[in-house]
Input
Amino acid sequence: MKIETTRFGALDIDEGKIIRMPQGMLGFPESRRFVLFPHKGGSPFFWYQSVDDPGLAFVLTSPFLIVADYKVDTKEALERMAWKENGDDGNYELYVVVNIPKGSPEKITANLIGPILINNTAHEALQMVVAESPYSHRFSVVQA
Amino acid sequence: MLILTRKLGERLAIGDDICITLLEIKGSQVKLGIEAPRSVEVHRQEVYERIRAENLASAEVQSPDVSMAEALLRNSR
Output
């Protein structure tokens, strides 16, 4: 399947790789389908490109690269999505949204209170809202 | 904005399936109990806004800046 993107031009994507987000990303409810691919081979950063909106892409990374013992309670998220905790549909990945101010890569931050939980078996995802969290929404990735 | 006055323990119904109960009043804080279907997301406004703002900012990130951040991380670890 071919999709148009503003940043990457036309992309040929495997339809089976499309991740559905029934609730979309917070602030972007219209985009419900995304594809995830690394910035470059071996990069810690990923692009989360909307299939529905050519101009919409988020930068993601693994929270465990930032806080090795990152913990988040996924119980409510699993319930909301009607996913089982373990078993056949339990192939989960966590990502966090990254913000890099233009021209200031040292000011890179990650939002640790709005992680994205991807169910790779169901090809679905949701953005969690972690209300009671010890983490910051602007966690400095590069330690001064 | 609709403004209603409620006493402790009284409830508000929003549509058929959302119910809000005034559970406790302590000084300037009130505790609310919210019953809503799972499909309705209920969040503290400020938490929701923070996540939304970070999403908006991330959607503006350009590819060269990602490459620069990647190089920076590689060199700092």
